[in-house]
Automatic annotation (TrEMBL):
Keyword Hydrolase: yes
Cross-referenced Pfam families: NUDIX, Zn_ribbon_Nudix
Lineage: Bacteria, Pseudomonadati, Pseudomonadota, Alphaproteobacteria, Acetobacterales
Keywords of the record: Hydrolase
Source organism, top-level taxon: Bacteria
Stretches the record annotates as Disordered: 173-195
InterPro entries according to UniProt: NUDIX_hydrolase-like_dom_sf (IPR015797), NUDIX_hydrolase_dom (IPR000086), Nudix_N (IPR029401)
PROSITE patterns on file: NUDIX (PS51462)
Species of the source: Craurococcus roseus
Record-annotated Nudix hydrolase domain positions: 41-166
Keyword Hydrolase: yes
Name recorded for this polypeptide: NUDIX hydrolase
Any one GO molecular-function label of the UniProt entry: hydrolase activity
Gene3D superfamilies linked to this entry: 2.20.70.10, Nucleoside Triphosphate Pyrophosphohydrolase
Length: 195
């Protein structure tokens, strides 16, 4: 049995409230006791449209959200990595694919869920790919064979269209949200399905 000297000292948990701190223009999560502001910022998602001989690499999700739907190899950045390193890591984690990034294809703002997505155009750097732990299956798809009804997220539609429009040209300015959804607020069911 531990002695009293080894027992942890329990401190009261801070109590946070939503209020507009002095000098701010919006409500923030703020400690009621000391005034500390816990800023909530968007998450950064990085990924790639990986092309091989005019086909694109897609991953069928083994995790929620959208389990069983198709997506690009993409996910949240980790601390200490660049956006390029994050995109390469996600391609490895989801598709066991080693990729070579060609440049930024698109930057999307998904305001409804607090995300900024940086999508690269890439190609396989080494032959071969297979499902990683977050994918049920992976495959290369010709444009006409992409499972449009089974795409997981609106931004995957957008990125695939951006890739199609630039696949055989040098990269220029990245694509942005389409005019029909400039803030990334339309849910999946409101999207028109490609054909």
């Amino acid at each position: 049995m531990p002695s009293l000297g080894a027992l942890p000292i329990l401190l009261p948990m801070p109590s946070f409230i939503r209020t507009t701190p002095e000098g701010e223009d919006r409500e923030r999560l703020t400690c009621r006791d000391c005034g500390f502001v816990a800023y909530e910022n968007p998450k950064i998602v990085v990924g790639s449209v990986v092309a091989v001989d005019g086909r694109v690499l897609l991953c069928r999700r083994a995790i929620e959200p959208r389990l069983g739907f198709w997506t690009l190899p993409a996910g949240y950045m980790e601390m200490g990595e660049t956006v390029e390193e994050g995109a390469a890591r996600e391609a490895w984690e989801e598709a066991r694919a080693r990729i070579r990034i060609e440049g930024v294809l698109a930057v999307y703002s998904i305001a409804r869920i607090g995300q900024v997505q940086v999508i690269f155009r890439a190609r396989l750097d080494e032959p071969g790919f297979e499902p990683g732990p977050e994918s049920l299956e992976v495959g290369l798809f010709e444009w006409a064979d992409i499972p449009w009804d089974g795409i997981a997220f609106p931004s995957v539609h957008w990125a695939l269209r951006a890739w199609r429009d630039t696949a055989h040209a040098p990269l220029a300015a990245p694509a942005l949200n389409p005019a029909s959804d400039p803030r990334g607020t339309r849910p999946m069911q409101d999207l028109e399905v490609e054909g």
